[in-house]
Amino acid sequence: MALDRPAAPNDLNAFWMPFTANRQFKKAPRMIVAAEGMHYTTSDGRQILDGTAGLWCCNAGHKRPRIVEAIQTQAAELDYAPAFQMGHPRAFELANRLVDLAPDTMAHAFFVNSGSEAVETALKIAIAYHRARGDGARTRLIGRERGYHGVNFGGISVGGIVNNRKMFGTLLAGVDHLPHTHIPENRWTRGQPEHGAHLADELERIVALHGPETIAACIVEPLAGSTGVLIPPKGYLQRLREICTKHGILLIFDEVITGFGRLGSPFAAQHFDVTPDMITCAKGLTNGVIPMGAVLTSAAIHDAFMTGPEHLIELFHGYTYSANPIACATAIASLDTYREEGLFERCAELAPYWEEGLHSLRDCPHVIDIRNMGLIGAIELEPIPGEPTKRAFAAFLEAYDKGLLIRTTGDIIALSPPLIIEKAQIDELFGTLRGVLHAIA
Ligand SMILES: Cc1ncc(COP(=O)(O)O)c(C=O)c1O
Predict the structure, then answer these.
(1) How far apart are CA 293 and CA 296, in angstroms?
(2) 114 CA: nearest ligand 1 atom
(3) What is the pLDDT of residues 281-335, one digit of tens each?
(4) Which of 19, 111, 257 should be mutated for ligand 1, with most atoms under 8 A from CB?
(5) Residue 152 lies inside a defined structural domain of this protein
(6) 36: domain range?
(7) Are 163 and 180 in contact (CB under 8 A)?
(8) Which of 307, 340, 373 is the last residue of a domain?
(9) Mutational test site, ligand 1, from 148, 221, 278, max ligand atoms within 8 Å of CB
């Protein structure tokens, strides 16, 4: 660390922290000053095992040499170039790399700067696509209860998390929601649950209510992460695909968490063998290091816009930082790291060991459900009566004290370590968590 930089700032007031209990944090700050491999270093010099890959994004762990070098080199060569009516080679290289990695039908990549922007972009493309084909009445969007699609207006409209919606007015009109798939019969399931494929049929009910000719797209996370790790029941995604195809509705998979190896395949679409019409991604795209997201689309969607006079812009959408050269270089270096180290395959190999370790916590106090897939796990705790979220937050603080970073949502502990985790670190993680669950009230 540079000597002229303090290990901790002396005034915490100015920074309004995102998704944070600001007043509580500023009374007892948890300050991270460095990271390498599987660990964070705190301002008081402690090593913290990263049980969450940052925010589900550092799939190759921290301070990876290829990525650090790519950023340095790119910054020295081409720091910024406009992406409107101009191009630079890295953007095209990255688009090709992504299309190669994605399911076969994905043929194009549109670059954005976050998962939230990827979602907004996909929803706009869906509506504009139908209009471009002369099907302009298709404007409705279908999301799902307990879905998380970022925090912009489109995303919270199709999303299904009450606290993310209720403060922000009426949101987008013409949105409907499928029921979530988290049903009690599926408690303690390892991998995909048996029950709940029929919940996809609710889409038929919504279609019948509004008329298929009014619906543009249905967006779901193939595996819902931020809302507490809700694994799709067997057959559910296949059924959604069938219904969307039958009614001409575009299916969008929000793979901001599941993209880039989290389930052991490049994308969840491949893992579940269900192909959507668009994929949104971010996070692991750049190993979380530089903000970047993308929307992957089929050729049919892209080609519907490629009509009319060639000198005219086909899609009036884009961001100043779309395909930022440093972001592109970071993404390419991340994909190189994933490939060279075989991290997606490694995830698939480690998944059974991870599952065993996770489910060994079943006998711990407060635990009412455990679920897992790939290198994702959730431990659901019995809420303290009248004080939802308090118990899980206590677990978060206790884990941090014990040298482990976990994430909590509601009363659910969500885990998603970097894919470089070693078996001994998996043991350490669950050993620490066992201590945490015994320590909290
Ligand atoms: C499925 C999903 N979509 C969208 C987002 C939003 O991404 P960002 O925070 O980069 O805007 C997230 C973030 O966790 C996510 O999990």
Answers:
(1) 10
(2) 10
(3) 999 999 999 999 999 999 999 999 999 999 999 999 999 999 999 999 999 999 9
(4) 257
(5) yes
(6) 22-60+342-439
(7) no
(8) 340
(9) 148
